[in-house]
Amino acid sequence: MKKKEISQLISLLEECYPEPVCALEYEKDYELLFAARLAAQCTDARVNQVTPVLYGRYPSLGSLACAEVAELESIIHPCGFFRTKARDIIAAAAMLIGEFGGRVPDTMEALLRLPGVGRKTANLMLGDIHGKPAVVVDTHCIRLSNRIGLVSSKDPVRIEAALREALPPGKSSDFCHRLVLHGRAVCTARSPGCGVCRISGLCRHYTLNG
Predict the structure, then answer these.
(1) Looking at the domain 29-129, which fold is it?
(2) Is the pTM for the entire model greater than 0.85?
């Protein structure tokens, strides 16, 4: 897409979704980190049901770092892959305390050192916690960025690089949140709602199939 078209796309999505908030609920920075870990292969809605119980039982990083694995597993069991996720959460909590002063780090390099943290979660932390330019490539971003014509790849790393080049840095994090909202409300995986889509005039999929 041309820069003018990308600018128009950003503006339309801003009109449609003026509050591009993350669907995961949290109060403390590390709560978003662990919610994102739980969200792997799980819905945000399910995670939001589990995290109040989790943080009610473990109200601090210290308590999470010292948690009994079996007990933590039983709490997060509904999120799936609970054994791996429990180990990652405990180990990451200990690392945050031991190496980062109890705070979620603000660089990609440091974030990727945390157990269970990949580029998607690291970008979420950079954008939502630290207010830095970030590109969160989740399933919605992959689907919509290809449908719209922003990218032509299914590889998250290539998509992240392409979107970083195409999007204004100050807009990139919110843009990705808006893609998620649009992907849930209109451009779903099974049936893109082109007939009610505000951005269809800029969309490659609509141009080819509309």
Answers:
(1) Endonuclease III; domain 1 (1.10.340)
(2) yes
